[in-house]
Amino acid sequence: MAFAKDHFVGGSDGWSQSGDYLTWASAETFNVGDNLVFNYGGSHGVNVVSKNDYDNCNTGNALRVYTGGNNSIPLSSAGDMYFVCPTLNHCDTGMKLAIKVQGSSSGTTPSAPSGTKSMPPNGAAGTFGSMTKVVVGFSVVLASMFAFMG
Q1: What span, in angstroms and rounded, lies between the C-alpha atoms of 31 and 78?
Q2: For the ranges 28-42, 44-58, 92-106, 129-143, which has the lowest average pLDDT?
Q3: Which has the closest alpha carbon to 66: 42, 88, 83, 78?
Q4: Cβ(35)–Cβ(108) under 8 Å?
Q5: What strand order describes the sheet that includes 70-74?
Q6: What is the SS3 string spanning the chain?
Q7: Percent of the chain, pLDDT > 70?
Q8: Is the pTM of this model over 0.70?
Q9: End-to-end distance of the chain based on CA atoms, in angstroms?
């Protein structure tokens, strides 16, 4: 059994202009089911953005906006995620974070790509067929979410 982990962004320094988020993130393993916890003060905030907006420090097209000084953001799907501080010039001076979320909190990934089928033993195709439709449907929903997030 695997348990979700809270990742405190920036460690004891929190989400601030003095953080080295590239180094911090490289020492972490992010899994679906975990949470990113942003602790900050002052005029900071957290914007979830696309890769292009992350690369260009564009905060005008944020996918999600968090304020208030203490935000716990659930990592609900696998893939790349990008975060920036929306305060003027903070992203440009390094207050941004890029992470790769792995498929599960156990650190393992599925052995077969989503949508693949194999026949079950004992000829239980009826039950397996229904289960496959649910898995394939879920995969389509996840793919749509990733396409939307950019």
Answers
A1: 7
A2: 129-143
A3: 83
A4: no
A5: 6-8, 35-39, 70-74
A6: CCCCCEEECCHHHCCCCCCCHHHHHHCCCEECCCEEEEECCCCCCEEEECHHHHHHCCCCCCCEEECCCEEEEECCCCEEEEEECCCCCCCCCCCEEEEEEECCCCCCCCCCCCCCCCCCHHHCHHHHHHHHHHHHHHHHHHHHHHHHHC
A7: 67
A8: no
A9: 32
